[in-house]
Write a structure and sequence with these properties.
This protein has a domain at 104-241: Tetracycline Repressor, domain 2. The radius of gyration is 30 Å and the shape is elongated. The protein has helices at 2-29, 51-69, 76-83, 87-93, 97-117, 127-142, 145-148, 153-161, 166-193, 202-223, 226-241. By secondary structure, the chain is an all-alpha fold. Helices cover 72% and strands 0% of the residues. Helix 2 (51-69) crosses helix 3 and helix 2 packs across helix 5 (97-117).
């Protein structure tokens, strides 16, 4: 009888020891963050979430994905992988992919256009010279081959989405209207200061200017040729010079 009890005690100790080892090894085999290497903290140190920051991160990542791949081919999974944001958080801010795309146009692309061209409305005695210098800078610094390979984001979306989605078309048109308005107001300022001929129709010239810039970028993108862009921008500079008053 004593031998039987001793054997039972040894079996119990062995079983307890096995469970003890298993309980220690399990966390090492499945670390908590192993499946989410790109996950970012969801909360600040004070324990409060920052939904505005999350939204901004999503918008910037979506812009980059759409710019590179186009809207229809853009991958939501790629956006989430880039940001580390959960799918639930994405759909909290943007219930559909289309609404995410609309927000990219309104809040990212529009702001980039305004920042890129809005500064030309700064006080200047000679707006023609200002625009010519801007075109020279764009040709030299903004449009190397790497940039031409993806093209202009607003032009890309206009070609891809405007024919098939009215929401995109309207939002993209607002971007173009803002851009044309910037150039038109600058030309009108030049007329008031006497640096541009009074007979120039500022609205028509602004529309032509934006169309020439966007058309040039589109052609250079398709040709993968920065020199084409540089040559066309040079011709546009020559045209702008003709708007000066005759001596």
């Amino acid at each position: 009888m004593k031998e039987t009890i001793a054997r039972q005690d040894r079996v119990k100790q062995t079983q307890l020891g096995t469970r003890s080892v298993s309980s220690v090894q399990t966390p090492q085999r499945y670390p908590l963050n192993a499946a989410r290497p790109h996950q970012q903290p969801r909360q600040h140190k004070n324990g409060k979430r920052n939904p505005d920051h999350t939204r901004e991160v999503l918008l910037q990542a979506a812009f980059e994905e759409i710019h590179r791949s186009g809207f229809r081919a853009a991958s939501v999974d790629a956006i989430l992988a880039r940001t580390g944001v959960t799918k639930g958080a994405l759909y909290y801010h943007f219930p559909t992919k289309t609404q995410l795309g609309y927000a990219v146009v309104e809040e990212v692309i529009r702001q980039r256009i305004l920042q890129r061209w809005g500064h030309v409305l700064e006080e200047t005695e000679d707006p023609i010279t200002h625009l010519i210098e801007k075109l020279r800078y764009e040709a030299k610094h903004r449009w190397p081959l790497e940039a031409l390979q993806v093209g202009c984001p607003v032009n890309n979306l206009a070609n891809e989405m405007s024919p098939i989605d009215e929401g995109f078309r309207q939002r993209i048109e607002h971007v173009f209207q803002d851009w044309r308005g910037i150039i038109a107001r600058m030309l009108q300022q030049g007329q008031k200061s006497g640096h541009i001929r009074a007979d120039v129709n500022a609205t028509q010239v602004a529309t032509f200017f934006v169309a020439a810039v966007e058309g040039t970028i589109g052609m250079a993108k398709n040709a993968q040729d920065p020199k084409l862009l540089q040559d066309n921008f040079t011709m546009l500079q020559t045209y702008l010079a003709t708007l000066r008053p005759l001596l």
